[in-house]
Design goal:
Layout: H1 3-8, E1 28-41, E2 44-57, E3 61-65, H2 72-79, E4 87-92, E5 95-96, H3 102-112, E6 113-117, H4 128-138, H5 143-156, H6 172-184, E7 190-194, H7 202-219, E8 222-226, H8 230-234, E9 238-243, E10 246-249
Helix pairs in contact: 4-5, 4-6, 5-6, 6-7
Keywords: ATP-binding, Lipoprotein, Nucleotide-binding, Transport
GO molecular function: ATP binding; ATP hydrolysis activity; transmembrane transporter activity
GO biological process, one term: lipoprotein localization to outer membrane
Length: about 260
């Protein structure tokens, strides 16, 4: 499918770039205050998070570590507005997720939040260029602008010569590079990552991590990285450990 055909499938709509004046006056891109999350389990409630607090500044890199099942992915979903807390509130660039309707929440997320997962979740029938351009199109960018921004990001992640390749034609590391470019293409304020190198071999994981750190420095985008890998956590600015549903600050990492 050509880029033009893909673009014709995207409904026209207003851009999510309505300005970020709501964030002015705050030094934090993201804040979670007294956040709790319970799940119904039979006749009882299972508390996963309780009285959880975290704040992330512009350009800051935060690692979230913890044992399997501790609630790290649940926390990430709350921070990104994909789920709602049972208690407390989460704000991104001054906007409270729970204060936004479905449409406004989607627009705000498209403008301010990127996601990178352990598995790339690329659309198999689309090229690398089309996958990366899609968030821009959803946000209301023109065909030309979306394509230009996608090309620029793919070039930044070293895939300028693989624009027309589909995911099946790319290696695991290349697919994850496309996923990273897709997360960054709208110039979000923060990118949330769930084990972004967990599905890669150690050598490729190291290359991806170096790439992420370089992009963080050049673009000044905040990162929240959920990881089991102590080597990755150690290269972030801060580390927090999720223990018994609460975040505990660890010693500042030395890069």
């Amino acid at each position: 499918m050509t880029t033009d055909l893909l673009l014709n499938k995207v409904p026209e709509g207003t851009s999510a770039a309505e300005g970020s004046s709501a964030a002015e006056g705050s030094s934090y891109v993201l804040q979670a205050k007294a956040v709790g999350r319970d799940y119904q389990q039979g006749d009882s409630l299972l508390p996963v998070l309780r009285d959880t607090n975290v704040a992330v500044k512009a350009g800051e890199k935060l690692a979230v570590v913890g044992v399997s099942g501790s609630g790290k992915t649940t926390l990430l979903n709350l921070l990104g507005g994909l789920d709602d807390p049972t208690a407390g509130r989460v704000t991104v660039c001054g906007a409270d997720w729970q204060g936004l309707g479905v449409s406004d929440r989607a627009k705000w997320r498209n403008q301010h939040v990127g996601f990178v997962y352990q598995f790339h979740h690329l659309l198999g029938e689309f090229s690398a260029l089309e996958n990366v351009a899609l968030p821009c199109l959803i946000g209301g960018a023109s065909v030309a602008e979306a394509q230009q921004r996608a090309e620029e990001l793919l070039d930044k992640v070293g895939l300028g010569d693989r624009l027309k390749h589909k995911p099946a034609e790319l290696s695991g590391g290349e697919r994850q590079r496309v996923a990273i470019a897709r997360a960054l293409v709208t110039s979000p304020s923060i990118v949330l990552m769930d084990e972004p190198t967990g599905n890669l071999d150690p050598g490729t994981a190291g290359v991806i991590l170096d790439l992420l750190l370089t992009l963080n420095q050049s673009l000044n985008i905040s990162f929240v990285v959920v990881t089991h890998d102590p080597a990755i956590a150690a290269r972030m600015d801060r580390q927090v450990n999720l223990i018994d549903g609460q975040l505990v600050e660890l010693e500042t990492a030395v890069v």
